[in-house]
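User: Here's a chain of 182 residues. Predict its fold as tokens.
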Amino acid sequence: MEKIYYTALETPLGRMWAATSEHGLVQFNMTDNKEGFMKELKRIKAEYVEDPSKFKQLRAELERYFRGEKLIFKGPFDMRGTPFQVDVWNAIHSIPNGKLTSYGGIAKQIGRPKAVRAVGNAVGDNPMGLIVPCHRVVSSNGGIGGFSTGLEWKRKLLAQEGILESSEGKPETDLDLRKFFK
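Assistant: Prediction complete.
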């Protein structure tokens, strides 16, 4: 039976959880809720082993990210979804730190310009939030859009990357985020 390794990671925004297979990262949750993390992880039939030693590179990258370095997380990744979802997640992964794109922009990038709603669903199903930075996908009108873990988290991450001045309140109000489109 396949083994999936997992651990808790302490960050300036609180405890987060990560899981990896022998092939790469399969899940990353920005929540302190281990039970919720494990419930989502159980979509993969495997033996689950807590092993912090499997996450040294990810820990180092998270430290750099939270120090303000502009980086794209290197992986490797073991993206488990439909071919369409994996195309969307790969496109999201290519969005540079400090830049944004829209759901429509992702749809065009993957060669499916009319699949904007399906792209939105795939973005919402991203199992590796922050690492595959779905917080960098916003509405085509420059609005903040949605976020599966809540807009408070999206605001925190966009503030971390210098897109929003603060994560307090609704700092994106009266701000057209299109100026950050890649």
